[in-house]
Amino acid sequence: MSRTNVDQNEIAKFEALASRWWDPTSEFRPLHDINPLRLNYIDERTPLAGRRVVDVGCGGGLLSEGMARRGANVTGIDMGEAPLAVARLHGLESGVQVDYRQTTVEELAADPDHAGQYDIVTCLEMLEHVPEPASVIRACARLLKPGGDLYVSTINRNPKSFLFAIVGAEYVLRLLPKGTHEWKRFIRPSEMSDHLRQAGLDIHDLTGMTYNPLTKVYRLARDVDVNYLMHAGKPSGE
Ligand SMILES: C[S@@+](CC[C@H](N)C(=O)[O-])C[C@H]1O[C@@H](n2cnc3c(N)ncnc32)[C@H](O)[C@@H]1O
C-alpha cells in the first residue's frame, strides 16, 4: 500500500552517490555544512537527550548520528539500501548507535508498536523527493506521542528558488549534481502549513536557511525564499 509513495528514480539517485555520503567535500557537502545548524535548531526547541526519535529519509545518517551523539535514542528510516548500508557502517566506525531500517514512514506508522511512540520526528530534505508529501506528513504525525514535535525542511517553490536551488546550486556553483532537484516538487511554506494542519499538528515556527556563495556559509535567517525549516507539534492530550 504505502510503497506507492516512493519514487524509485529518486531513490536511485541517492543509491548511486551513497559511498561518498560522509565525505564533506563530496556532493553531500551542503548537508554536512547545514548539519550543525539544524541540529542546534532542533536541540534548542526540543532538547534531544533522552528523547525517542525517528529520522525519516535518514540517508547515510548525518542527522541521525548527530542526534544520537546528543543523547537521543534514534531510529533512522530510508528506502535506499546503499545509504542505509553506509549509515550502518559509519555507525560501527564511530560507535554511535542508531537503529537503521529500510521502510517507508507510512509502513512504520501503520505498525501499532510504533504509532504514537515518539517524542520527535525529523524529516529533513526528503519531502521534495516523494510523490505525495502530505502522506509522509500524516504518517510522521501518527508516529508522535501527544505533545511530540515534528521538524521538516525542504525548498520553497518560486522563481528565486529555481534560480538559486537549481540553476545556482546545480549548474553554476555545482554544489549538487545536475538533476538532484525538480522545481515542481518544491513546497511552499503555505502548502507545508496546510499539510501540517491537516495532519492535526500546530505550527510553532518557520525559519529560513540562506547560503552566501562568497563566504560559503549557511545561516538560519528570516528569509524563507529558498531553503526553510518548520517546527510543528502534536497537541498534548489527544
Ligand atoms: C537529500 S537526502 C536527505 C538525507 C537526510 N534526511 C539529511 O538531510 O541529511 C533524501 C533521502 O530521502 C530518501 N528518500 C526519498 N524518498 C523516500 C521515501 N519515500 N521513503 C524513505 N526515504 C526516502 C532518499 O533515499 C535519501 O536518502
Question: Could you walk me through the main structural features you see in this protein, from its secondary elements to its overall organization?
Answer:
The chain is an alpha/beta fold and 238 residues long. The protein has one domain (8-234): Rossmann fold. It contains 8 helices and 8 strands; from the N terminus they run ααβαβαβαβαβααβββ. The chain has an 8-stranded mixed sheet with strand order 3-2-1-4-5-8-6-7. The chain is globular, with a radius of gyration of 16 Å. The mean pLDDT is 95. S-adenosylmethionine binds at residues 5-6, 10-11, 14, 31, 57-59, 62-63, 78-80, 83, 104, 124-126, 129-130.
Provide tags for this entry.
binds S-adenosylmethionine; Rossmann fold; alpha/beta
Topology overview:
Blueprint: H1 8-17, H2 29-45, E1 52-56, H3 62-69, E2 73-78, H4 81-94, E3 99-102, H5 105-110, E4 118-124, H6 133-143, E5 144-155, H7 159-172, H8 189-198, E6 202-212, E7 217-221, E8 227-233
Parallel strand pairs: 1-2, 1-4, 2-3, 4-5
Antiparallel strand pairs: 5-8, 6-7, 6-8
Helix pairs in contact: 2-3, 6-8
Bound molecules: S-adenosylmethionine.
